Amino acid sequence: MTAAPEQTRVLDTVEHATQTPDREQPWAELGLKADEYEEIRRILGRRPTGAELAMYSVMWSEHCSYKSSKVHLRKFGQLPQETPLGKTLAGIGENAGVIDVGQGWAVTFKVESHNHPSYVEPYQGAATGVGGIVRDILAMGARPVAVMDPLRFGPLDAPDTARVLPGIVAGVGGYGNCLGLPNIGGEVVFDDTYLGNPLVNALCVGVLRHEDLHLAHASGAGNQVVLYGARTGGDGIGGVSVLASETFSEDGPAKRPSVQVGDPFMEKLLIECTLELFAAGVVAGIQDLGGAGLSCATSELASAGDGGMHVELSTVPLRDSSLSPEEILMSESQERMMAVVEPARLEAFMAVCGKWDVEAVVVGEVTDGDHLVIDWHGETVVDVPPRSVAHDGPTYERPYARPEWQDALQADTTAALARPSGADELRATLLDVVASPNQADKSWVTDQYDRYVRGNTVLAQPEGAGVVRIDEETHLGVSVATDCNGRFAKLDPYAGAVLALVESYRNVAASGALPLAVTDCLNFGSPEDPAVMWQFERATQGLFDGCRALGIPVTGGNVSLYNQTGETAILPTPVVGVLGVIDDVRTRLRGGFAADGRTVLLLGDTRDELDGSAWSDVAHGHLGGVPPVVDLDAEQALARLLVRSAREALVETAQDLSDGGLGVALAEAVIKHGTGVTVSLDDVAGDPFVALLSESTARAIVTVTPEQAPAFRAAAEAEGVPVRELGTTGGDALDVTGSFSVGADELRTRWAATLPAVLDA
Amino acid sequence: MRIGVVTFPGSLDDVDAQRAVRVAGGDPVALWHGDHDLQGVDAVVLPGGFSYGDYLRCGAIARFAPVMSEVVDAAHHGLPVLGICNGFQILCESHLLPGALVRNDHQRFVCRDQRLRIEDATSAWTGSYAAGQEIVVPLKNGEGGYVADEATLDALEGEGHVVARYLGGNPNGSLRDIAGIRNAAGNVVGLMPHPEHAVEDLCGPGTDGLGFFTSALRALVG
Prior knowledge:
heterodimer; A: alpha+beta; 7-stranded mixed beta sheet; 26 helices; globular; B: alpha/beta
């Protein structure tokens, strides 16, 4: 877009906008619809200035406004905002939910997506995904203590996976490691549909004392608005450069990268500086700068407070002095925070920032009006009701409809697929599943993450849940797991979401922790496709119903839409994170056979449920049928039993069953310490294949010593959890009585070889 | 016994080093990079992390921190100083130890439980071990490859200044599998693996790392 020469230096002030009502504006290029643009004009009673248009366009985007998903997310607000330990301290709507974990401690956690930037620029996209979620947690007044990263890629051997995977993993590690946060788990999943749409979800956990909770708001006329952290640059501006080129074509930078660049060192300083500011009691309100940068921070802070706000944009420290006001408002430069500070405490605030060499500048103040007014060198370029920018974006009731192909997909069950016949085929099949990319050893990825820093990591990969200690005196800790089987969600999005929830719930319980709350990252295709919106609607309903039944709230999360290439959407991927509390981390449970002579018990019932299973994928490349049946009562009983078993030391080890069923769980347990096991599957299912590879839910395996066995069996009976004795640990092989035997070394070799064979090639 | 742990901007394992000192029975003292003050401590730990972001050579900026002039002076007068990971890099940049640490040969950050052999049990930080003892402590670094010229390597080996060597596979391309070295006096030790992450059974691969900290306390008492 070229502008007439006489326009290039005209600042588009509010006054100018009023005088030039008919001026053409690039609302369409900024992603706004005609009726959205009209709505902005209606709100303002005039045309928006360029800066205002930029703010509305980015704040009303799908990413910031949740305009397609909002109607379906509202239901989560109807869940009782209460965990098994009491009322939540902050829920949906804050930067992140905060829950009470006892002893005066609170925990905040949240998962977010950074999918599209990570496809465009894998390293920086993933790195800044970690950085963004960490600032969300920090803004609640919490010290970030751990991160987790659920990742999804196209096929392991696809050329584009070779492009994105190493960069994404290095970015997650490069940022998190330099920040000093242990990475305690996550997922690495491969599926064709993620080719061209990798999913990078990032979760962060923070801890705080109850009295240290800080909510984002700007109150108290005369209070100072301070921007601190990194300088503002031209990164992450994206579509808004359309505006810049319109008004500043001669002086302005022509093209801007739309992916942000991270500086984890600055973020580390920001963490320590911000926590010291909180401790000094000099923060009245705070907001992190993430998506939509200053537009978001100023409008959200102002609309959450009781007054207005006045900002002089020319005071913002810049990395690039040629930036236009629109670009400064839109920039998504990382590692920045905005605080509201009482004038009397400003000096103390600045002293703390000085100690940490963090640049801090007063950019404005809270006013007693009700507008957000932003000036550029004294001339007003924004004058808006802040709520209209931050919260009153459009809401769409997108059409949704069960796709025509859903019936055919569900009818195409695994019943017709050839199953292994005989011991040798079953042995080979199990090894193939264990060595398949989704079940194989992920240490190629996780060894690039620091899991030890801060010295409180009790469990990390390859356990199903990560556990961190939060109090060294009392041994209080939290456990977190994230899960989602997108294949199940494709077969039945409602059930798929519930299955993601119960798997995560089960993983937390299997670590010995009481599940308390949920965060979710809903990754789907285009909301403009009614089939995708149907998947989305079904998944949110499933998650809602599941959470209600389990008695745990959704305390926050994130939605990522438009994850599709052409007509092909990703598998619906509602990633569910569950957080639990463990009163004494010394009682935590781990998987793996640790000693000889232990009795191995299978908890829960096994049915012939192979549709959507790892076996159907690995052996036949098949996806069809209906996912395993969910039994929420059985899941709760199993969880109660596992939590009690940890507290009362009724078991030695515990491990949940999920992808790949009992066969993969046994293999992992043998691989871990090289301790073998001899099992009989006769009581599990009539067919050893079904016993090993069915993915029935609400199951786990535990090992007990002879002394523990009676008390454990009594507890299981009291909870109504079915127990079947599988066999005894010992030897150096997985020995299935009457069928086959496979050595621990062979299992380990096959399991460990898969990722390096491709990624180190 | 008071052992100082220096916090530079970007230090990460300072809290861990302080905990290790405490578990070993010492009193940790937080030292600040910007102060010309060692607060009268009996020994100093330079912890792991990414001081000043390590955007230049690792440790290259930290070596100019105000507190380092005191650390270097005191080290020359016999103060026990342990540099772990980034701290090792800082000691090399400060010329308290020879050689340098470069990017891992496989170009990736690596975090794993690492077997080591204690080669020298005479330094201020390894006296609790027996020479030849094998231990397991976490290793985590992106630039942990120890390099020096052949003459320096020969001298380190010949004079018994290699304090620890990698076993079970070289994780980062360090020449002669060197995981840690000391100065001639034995008071300054640089170590790439992280003993401070192996001081409690609960939160690490065991307690094999505790010996580095008890060694210093013992050396100070003795």
